[in-house]
Amino acid sequence: MRRNLLRRPLRVFEFFVSGVGLLILLPILILLLILGWFDTGAPLFRQTRIGYKQKQFTLFKIRTMRVGTPQKGSHLINQNSKTKLGKFLRKTKLDEIPQLWNVFIGDMSFVGPRPCLPNQNELIKEREKLGVFNSYPGITGFAQINRIDMSTPKLLAKIDAKMIDEMNLYQYFRCLSLTLLGSGFGDNK
Fold it and tell me: 10, 37, 154, 168: which has the highest count of C-beta atoms within 10 A?
C-alpha cells in the first residue's frame, strides 16, 4: 500500500511537528486540564484503541463526557453525557490536543483511519477485509473531512481503504489542511 511507502519520511515530519506542537500548546493543554479537573474531576481521558496491525494502544484525549460514561463509540452514547466544557472542546477539537503525544511516540499518524475501540466488532471485521489495519491510525482522514463517523462501519472501512490506496504527499497535506481550516475531524455530533 502506498501509505506505507510514505511512513518513513512522514514519521520524521510527524515526530518533529508533534513534539513542537506539544511544546507550543503546553500552556493551553495545562489550562484545559485545570478546567477539566473542575468539570469532571478526571480531565485526561485514556482509552484502549486498535492501531497498526491491530495492536492495542492507549489513546489520549481531554475528557468531554462524564466519568463513568460507557466505553463505546461516541455515536452510541447519549449526547447528554457530554459536559458543557466537553461540548465546547469537541466543537473546537481542543480535546484532541493530547493525541499529539500518540503521534509523537509513533502509535498514530496525523492522517490515517481513526482508531476504533476493541468492541467495535463490525468495523474491525470490515477493516480487516480491506486491509485498513496495515496503515497507522490517524487524528484525521478522508472520512473525518467528509463527516463520515463510525456509525456506518461498512462505508467507513471503504473510505479508509480508499484513503490508504490513494495516499500520497499531496493527499496527506490536503487532508491535514482541510482539517486545520475547519472541515473537521473526529465525530461531528
Answer: 10
Domain that holds residue 141: 2-183
Q: SS3 of 36, please? A: helix
The 3-state DSSP class for residue 13 equals helix
Write the CB contacts of 170 (distance below 8 Å, at least 6 apart in sequence). none
The total domain count for the chain is: 1
* Residue 23 belongs to a domain: yes
**Contact criterion met (CB below 8 Å) for 141 and 160:** yes
Task: Please tell me the distance from the alpha carbon of residue 56 to that of residue 187, in angstroms, as a whole number.
Answer: 21
Write out the E strands in the chain. 44-50, 56-62, 109-111, 138-140
Dump pLDDT digits (tens) for 119-161.
999 999 999 999 999 999 999 999 989 889 888 999 999 999 9
The average pLDDT across 87-93 equals 89
